[in-house]
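Not sure how to ask, but would you mind making up any protein sequence you like and the tokens describing how it folds?
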Amino acid sequence: MSAQNHTLNKLHPYLPGERARMMIISACIGVMTGLAIIAFRESVTLVETLVMHHGAAMLGIDQGGWRRALIPLLPMAGMVLLIPLSLAFPGEINGYGFPKFLRRVNLENGVLKARTIVLKLSSCAISIGSGNSAGTEGPIAQIGGAIGSQIGRRFRVSGNRMKVYIAAGCAGGIAGIFNAPLAGMFFASEIVLLGTYEISSFSALVISSAMSTVVSRAYYGEIPAFPIPPYTIVNYFVELPLYTLMAILVGLAAVAYIRFFYHMRDRFQALRLNSQVKPILGAFLVGSIAIYFPQIMGDGYHYIAKALAGDTLLWRMALLVVLKSVATAITLGSGGAGGVFAPSLFIGAVLGGSYGIVVHNLLPNYTATPGAYATVGIGAFLAASTHAPLTAIFLLFEMTGNYMIIIPVMITAVLGTITAKWLYNDSIDTVDFTRDGIDIHEGRETAIMKSVKVGKAITENVNFISETANVNQLLEMFRDTSNHFYFPVINHKGLMVGVVSMQDVKTVLMDDEARECQLVGAICSRKVIMLTPDDNLYTAIQLFDVKGIDEIPVVESLDKPWVLGMLKRQDVINAYNHEMIKRGIHERAESIRMVCSAS
């Protein structure tokens, strides 16, 4: 051992340092993510060829006529193929999984199973390739994140470094699939890391994005996800105000889309159907729409190219804004696999194109073609729905390679996001967190405090006193329970009517007759702050800090204040520490288990 240590000490100056190792690992993550992109895209193409082309030819759909009524069988076939995966891996296949991914990365241990790579690749390829309305970008970001997590576990890195590697994989996923390294980098920093990152982590995102893009370009060439025609501005003084108005409309549309998306998911969850039947029902509904509007099937990239080239049928583009939103909500709400990135691009393109048709017909000599507005609409709607304007701005810039688009897309992306956040605080990825009472942007510690209920922290034994008792009886209670400084005061029905403290009895403390005659109900504080067992520790600690008190009564409900206990500041701290220790043990055990299983 001593000889080995001596050799290591001699080699140490030549070994890469901590930052250099992180850069090398990030490059490996980028390369592996680039290879995963190729496998994913080829899988989608394979399923699309088998189902949408050979399957359609077998059914004679391409002959038209009454055979078009058979179109719903194509997406339904994809959902049937998902059933074995869904049964084998419940909770990992169906629905929009990116919010769960964000929860795992930002609030939990960041450990993603290796099978996530295969499951996301296969399930989303089946769902999207068979014509169901969803996108590939969210899943490929999760695949890249899982690659980063697996590499982080092999090197047994800390939780913060694991988070950086996961974000690097996500950056590589978006960069490679769009051929846009800057967009991938900002996607990871804005959405995955929630805008909180350091220079060291930022460099990891840069390297992973670059390497993934290199791999993707080596296989596919320098071709964007869909062709974008040259962008022009005819008149700045006329068109910039028009883009400002467009940004407001996009913000409104994004809020409507987010609300409808989760409304549809809630409706499907409430349906009394077998969970394996719901995706098939959703596929039938999407296929029924596709009988008349096949543009809504799959990721929609083919029609995006037509919209950018200048589809001039206003009624069709305006209708597709609604139909694509409905189809995506049905596909993912019913349990289909996929993401919302591509549908957002589609909706933005047809929404911007519709707006462009209107303004170009009104001011033909002062405005660009509808395709220019469709191009800007892509970035605007993506920014408004995800609350990630930098990602949208750089995505459009890299895909067009035109400096002229920067100002319009900056205006629409930023103002669209501001409008959407003003009307509805959540992006399409954070609605579930708000429903659980978690502000994911506040950090893990706050999220943990919001996840623990007051009912788990209160002391079980509580002493209370009747409002008809006198001060002498109250003093005896203070003497017998020296660790309590507040007592709930109850009425004859047993309901709490106030709180009494030692401070309240100071005025009569030296008067024997007053102590005998004075009732507790006359000196207690009637305006009382109360908590219920369903309140969380974060709410409790805020009340402690704002009000400057040491104990808060906990009652069954505010309508029926039966006293359950008194919550102390120390109780909150103890409950928080207990939860942190429990999660730390669980995360450590899970990490060890995953490392052992991998080896």
About this structure: The longest helix spans residues 18-59.
